[in-house]
Amino acid sequence: MIEILLEQKPDVNLEQLKELIEEKKRKIGAGYLTDQGALFLVAADLGASFDNVQRTKRGIKDLYIGARDLDLTVRLLSIYPIRVFTKKDTNERIESRTITVYDVGGSIKARLWDNLTHVIEENSFKPGDLIQIKNCYVKSALNGKPLINIGEGGNIYPYEGNDTSIPDLDGITSNIDSVRAEKENAVISGLIGSIPRIIEFSDSRGERKKSLQTMLSNESGDRKLRVALWNVDEDSLPRFFQVNFPIRIIGARIKDGNLQYGNGDFEIHGDEGTIIELKEKPEDYEVHTIRIISDGRSDNNSVNYIGVDKDKNLVYVTLEGLKSNNVNLNSVMDCIPSRIFGNMVFLKEDSYLELVENNSLPRIEECVSKIKDIKTVGDSYIIESIILQQPNTTQVNTKNGELVSVTDTLIGDDTGEMRLVGWRDSSAELERLKVGDRIRIIGAVLNTGREGKLELTLRKDTLINNLL
Fold first, then answer.
1. Per-residue pLDDT tens for 285-330?
2. Which of 167, 196, 223 is the last residue of a domain?
3. What CATH number is given to the structural domain containing 197?
4. Would the CA dihedral through 418, 419, 425, 429 be positive or negative?
5. What is the count of structural domains for the chain?
6. Contact call for residues 208 and 200 (beta carbons, < 8 A)
7. Is 118 left (phi over 0), alpha (psi -120 to 50) or beta?
8. Phi and psi at residue 217, in whole multiples of 5°?
9. How far is the C-alpha of 192 from the C-alpha of 426, rounded, in Å?
10. Which domain-ending residue is among 107, 136, 167?
């Protein structure tokens, strides 16, 4: 806005303009005007206008709250789901959608209304596409930042041509090693550095949501950033999503790290508008061989098992809509999964599954870890240990006000001791144990707990068997 005004009034310099802004704020009264509000009044005194600036000159860096009748050429960065709500006074059904766009000068969110909410699918728009936004205006978002509003009279079109001044997604992609500061709407690439996990949580309204938690690593593996995507839709994630896959995260926020949850380095946070893109397409028809090491547990139309692969890694197998009569403890299966998410394998009706004889795969006794060797946060382990302390149960208030049961105890083997924790339903699994019990824990996950100390956490499908 200052640049526009100085162009229109060359007899006024920057220092004079700043003085006029401060004078206007003093005269109107402290607390009534922001610098931007004062600038509007100064512009009126000087006979300058922000409304007659040629539309073609405007980019994201030139936008200000109150700007109207804008035409913008931008690239699409991220796309949020359509939201539907009803007006209380008229019961009118309203649709709204948010997108994020960028140009060479920056990025900004835009709000689409009613019929325009479907323009993304109608034009098969995807991140990186050049688009033309017609007849929009800028308002203040709830966080006070500028927000493009595209309502009645506005429109979005595919951009005809190739505006080389706006870099494509490759041109704005950063790698892990270049992350040195906080940033909004970032595009960052790297390797999946830990087993990705889907974690359920309650939002501020008590609704159950899911988050994706993993680490993003550089090529050498000597730098890892924690990744947390909130309100994630599992169906929007790639079908094959495993450790060491090269990915690109589009539309995320880089923020300072929290030692309570990570290594203290920067963190990558996203939401339902964030996109994870595989940099290389994996082979769809790779055969996986798995030995089943647990009995099946039924859950609606699916049966869940725990298995191990040839490298002694734990694998969680879900059979959905498939007959499981012949799958038993110690069965070995060759399969082509419908989906792989970290160490979770999903076999559906379109999957290949055959039970085979294969004595080369390790048995459960060969996959037991000693406590001293449990080191990789996010990995699942099999442990044989003794209960050293009476399990203690407390009620904990989460950040969102949810009251949940948490039980913890101390386990040990001949190499060391470690805290074992169960949340919610898993809390009852620990409550039944007593000091001196010898147990085998199948599928506990290593996490960073209180005071940054490592601890084992029960998953909802973790098994605890008493040993004689």
1. 688 999 999 888 887 788 889 999 999 999 999 998 777 668 888 8
2. 167
3. 2.40.50.140
4. positive
5. 5
6. yes
7. alpha
8. -115, 155
9. 28
10. 167
Dihedral angle sign, alpha carbons of residues 160, 161, 162, 163: negative
Contact present, 200 and 212 (Cβ < 8 Å):
no
| 33 and 58, same domain (yes or no) | no
53: helix, strand or coil: coil
**Over the stretch 25-56, which tens digit does the pLDDT of each residue have?**
888 765 667 787 788 888 888 888 776 554 44
Residues 6+ apart with CB under 8 A from 325: none
Residues 6+ apart with CB under 8 A from 86: 92, 93, 94
Q: Greatest CA span in the chain, whole angstroms?
A: 92
Query: Buried (b) or exposed (e) across 376-392, using 16+ Cβ within 10 A?
Result: ebbbbbbbbbbbeeebe
Of 56-60, 94-98, 124-128, 215-219, give the lowest mean pLDDT range: 56-60
**Would you give the distance in Å from CA 326 to the centre of its chain?**
38
Q: Do 71 and 152 fall within a single domain?
A: yes
**82 class by beta-carbon count within 10 Å (0-12 exposed, 13-18 middle, 19+ buried):** middle
Entry pTM = 0.73
Burial class of residue 444 (count of CB atoms within 10 Å of its CB; 0-12, 13-18, 19+): buried
pLDDT digits (tens, 9 = 90+) for 383-437: 999 999 999 999 887 766 678 899 999 999 999 999 999 988 889 889 999 999 9
Read off φ and ψ for residue 451, nearest 5 degrees.
60, 25
Q: At 24, which helix (H) or strand (E)?
A: helix 14-28
The whole-number pLDDT of residue 51 equals 63
Q: Is the dihedral of CA 235, 239, 243, 248 positive or negative?
A: negative
Using the structure block, give the residue that is written with the tokens 């309650």.
202
Run of H or E including 41:
helix 35-46
State yes or no: pLDDT of 99 exceeds 90. yes
| Alpha carbons 16 and 197: distance in angstroms, whole number | 57
> What mean pLDDT do residues 190-211 have?
83
Check residue 400 and give its pLDDT.
63
- Of 383, 403, 384, 447, whose CA–CA distance to 421 is shortest? 447
Q: Which residues contact 264 (CB under 8 A, 6 or more apart)?
A: 257, 258
Range of the domain at 155: 54-167
CA gap 321, 329 in Å, rounded: 20
